[in-house]
Write a structure and sequence with these properties.
The protein has about 270 residues and is of the alpha+beta class. The protein has 13 helices and five strands.
Length: about 270
């Protein structure tokens, strides 16, 4: 497929996810090292952006070999921020080696970034990493989603805002789906169609569209929310106990080989 057609398809996916029509490439251009990929994360990936949501870009950069073997502390994680036409954007990237190490932990967050269908910039290395992702999924990823849900629920109880409530429901449902089906699904409107999802999830998503930090209001009685969240935690426990996912990632050696090959290739090319 011609590159112009690929770019057009990619832009259509971004617009369909509610991304504002702003120049994301301007922020990517501030990355001074080679960018291996950049995707959209956050509320746009999860399917509940508000009219005033910022744009969360996540990805991987490639540091020169000298930065990793010399005396200076390497900038393995880099954050760039910008604003365009009133839209706030941030780009957080990790060096390839650090990102690979994060992938080997039970960290669903980085896997969601890697597998995000909202692709802003891609390379052959991105595609290789994506191909390795299924071998990195483990039963222990349930711990990530369980812990994340607990943090967001406490924030919801403190603030009463819809955003942490939706995050709570999203991560629990994502964890359950991963344990049961062996696949990552971070998109809450899709998860809302599954048997474990409370029936009021679409109503909460619709309520959040009006404001990023809007209150939960009277959409669902508090007692029912507590009962449903507790039930989802129990369902996640059961799904983890029954999962066919392994207890350790199977793709460690392949991931190591990829990091070494890419780094040596860049050094040979003078990058």
């Amino acid at each position: 497929m011609p590159e112009t057609s690929v770019a057009a398809d990619r832009n259509a996916v971004l617009r369909a996810a509610g991304l504002p029509a702003v120049d994301l490439a301007a922020l990517l251009a501030q990355q001074r090292d080679p960018l291996l990929f950049a995707t959209v994360s956050g509320a746009h990936l999860y399917g509940f952006p508000s009219r005033d949501s910022d744009v969360d870009l996540r990805g991987v950069h490639l540091l020169p070999a000298a930065d990793l073997v010399g005396l200076r502390e390497p900038e393995e994680t880099r954050t760039l921020m910008g604003e365009h036409d009133g839209v706030e954007m941030d780009l957080v990237t990790h060096d390839l080696r650090k990102f690979a190490r994060l992938l080997l932990r039970p960290n669903g967050y980085v896997l969601e970034q890697l597998l995000s269908p909202l692709v802003v910039h891609t390379t052959p290395v991105h595609r290789e990493l994506t191909a390795l992702a299924p071998g990195l999924l483990t039963a222990h990823h349930a711990h990530h989603y369980r812990g994340f849900a607990g943090t967001q629920w406490r924030l919801f109880e403190k603030t009463g805002e819809l955003k942490p409530l939706l995050y709570t429901l999203r991560v629990l449902l994502t964890g359950i789906h991963l344990m049961a089906a062996g696949r990552l699904q971070p998109h809450l409107p899709t998860l809302a169609g599954e048997p474990d999802a409370p029936a009021y999830v679409p109503e909460l998503i619709a309520a959040k569209e009006a404001a990023e930090h809007g209150p939960a209001g009277d959409v669902v009685p508090p007692d029912r929310l507590r009962a449903d969240v507790a039930a989802l935690h129990a369902r996640l426990d059961d799904a983890q106990a029954a999962t066919a996912l392994p207890t350790a990632p199977a793709g460690r050696d392949a991931l190591h080989d990829l990091v070494v090959r890419v780094r040596l290739g860049a050094a040979a090319a003078g990058i």
